[in-house]
Amino acid sequence: MSLKCILYVSQSLIRADRDDFRAAISKIMMESERNNRADDITGVLAYDRGRFLQYIEGPPGPMGALVDRLLGDPRHTNMTIRIDEPVETRLFPKWSMALLNITLPPLPGYSVEDLENQPVDQLLARLQRAADEESILSVAPRSQDDE
Predict the structure, then answer these.
(1) Which of 35, 57, 64, 82 is the most buried (most CB within 10 A)?
(2) What domains are there in the chain, each with its CATH number?
(3) 58 - beta bridge partners?
(4) Dist. CA 39–CA 73, nearest whole Å
(5) Taking a C-beta distance cutoff of 8 angstroms, is the pair 104, 65 a contact?
(6) The BLUF domain covers which part of the protein (predicted)?
């Protein structure tokens, strides 16, 4: 099966109010679970100080349609695609979507803009490390039939 992956960074437009933010993230996760299962897309979503970092993978056709929807999503802006390429295997095959905690303790010189400038291999390593360390806040597992 031919697969494609996308890694992007964007700026959240979701209000910072805790309840509004939780409701919006819950809605994103529910939509992702429904749509991604139907389209055989897997991946992870992370949030760090007002920025989204998302890695998604799946068949090229549905991935193109998903990117089009993401570009028009009013919950974020300034979407910068860092990776858009074919892949042979999935990095996150178990999840239709997982929400990861990647927030680092404040480091001298760290800025959320680093998500736009950090080398993509470091961004992917950060996502994989969060998944391996079980910094998972929410998960929509793929059905057993999909594996």
Answers:
(1) 57
(2) 3-141 (3.30.70.100)
(3) 4
(4) 18
(5) no
(6) 3-98
DSSP assignment of 63-116 equals HHHHHHHHHT-TTEEEEEEEEEEEESS-SSTTEEEEEEE-PPPP-TT--TTHHH
Q: Name the strands in the sheet holding 3-12, side by side, starting at the edge strand that comes first in the sequence.
A: 76-87, 3-12, 51-58, 42-48, 95-101, 136-141
Alpha carbon distance 62, 66 (integer Å): 6
pTM above threshold 0.70: yes
DSSP 48: E
* 84: amino acid identity, one letter: D
Q: How far is CA 21 from CA 27, 73, 81, 84, in A?
A: 10, 15, 23, 28
